[in-house]
From TrEMBL:
Transmembrane segments: none annotated. Residues 31-40 have a biased composition (Polar residues). It comes from Blautia obeum. This is Replication-associated protein ORF2/G2P domain-containing protein. Residues 31-58 are annotated as: Disordered. It holds the Pfam family REP_ORF2-G2P.
Length: 269
């Protein structure tokens, strides 16, 4: 099945993607595997991929992860944006699998003892040296999770003492995180926080974590409702024109190597 429109429903808005070139819907097809005959048993080696194909594959991989994280994030209302660093004296901050395992144990303990309804989405960030990891995340329904005011506040990327700017966003610490430094700040806008957290997904990170989960999410997290359609261009254009006054965001992206153009539109509910 081909489609040229994808609709993604979020709690506070509806996101529409219009594809200039129809997209093939991925389907899983099961088939009986036949034993190859002697004449066909010799596999022809794959041709080496071109530089353009490799770049396209890397770009597609990053975009897929970014879209997944953004869609999940937008489907939930968040309370805190958190950062968790890893002290190399307490935990090997170059071992992604070990850190992920400790994070899973830590979040499970929080749910058992402090916040049974905790929702979280955690995204790794790779240090500039290409080896060390730390995590950023979004939390909601934190229950009785302890927070300690750090005495600091932030205005954008700038940090001040609370006495200088008492009206600014307070920075808290999470005393239960024993593996390094932690911060937590209030989320004012879920859409903004969703866009912000995807910036940590880079090509280098995606290549290092190939065939691995590139984010951690709680099982009770809400997922977006997605639907696809194939709509005649004239009818689609007319329908969009009737609702232009409700558009809160619009952008047009060209993807030359995929011979594709995507128009992104967001409508407030």
């Amino acid at each position: 099945m081909l489609y040229n429109v994808k609709k993604i429903e979020y709690p506070d808005s509806v996101h529409i993607r219009v594809y200039g070139r129809p997209v093939q819907m991925k389907t899983k097809i099961s088939a009986t595997v036949k034993t190859p005959t002697p004449a066909s048993s010799h596999k022809v080696p794959d041709s080496p991929r071109t530089k353009e194909q490799i770049e396209h594959s890397a770009h597609t991989s990053v975009n897929r992860t970014v879209n997944q994280i953004y869609a999940i994030s937008r489907s939930n209302h968040w309370t805190y944006f958190i950062t968790l660093t890893i002290d190399p004296n307490k935990l090997d901050n170059t071992d992604f699998n070990l850190i992920s395992e400790k994070l899973n144990i830590w979040t499970n303990n929080i749910k058992k003892r402090y916040a049974p309804d905790l929702k979280y989405l955690l995204v790794p960030e790779l240090h500039k040296d290409g080896k060390k990891w730390h995590f950023h995340g979004l939390f909601s329904d934190i229950g009785n999770l302890p927070l300690e005011f750090s005495g600091k506040v932030c205005v954008g990327k700038f940090i001040y003492d609370y006495v200088r700017k008492p009206y600014a966003t307070k920075i808290y610490n999470l005393p239960l995180w024993k593996y390094g430094f932690s911060t937590a700040t209030k989320v004012r806008d879920t859409a903004h926080a969703s866009s912000y957290i995807t910036k940590y997904i880079t090509k280098d990170m995606s290549q290092i974590l190939a065939n691995q989960h590139r984010y951690l999410a709680s099982q009770n997290i809400d997922r977006p409702v997605e639907k696809v359609y194939h709509i005649d261009n004239d009818i689609l254009q007319y329908a969009l024109e009737q609702h232009l006054d409700k558009v809160s965001y619009a952008s047009n992206v060209k993807i030359p190597f995929a011979n594709q153009q995507i128009t992104y539109l967001e409508f407030n509910r």
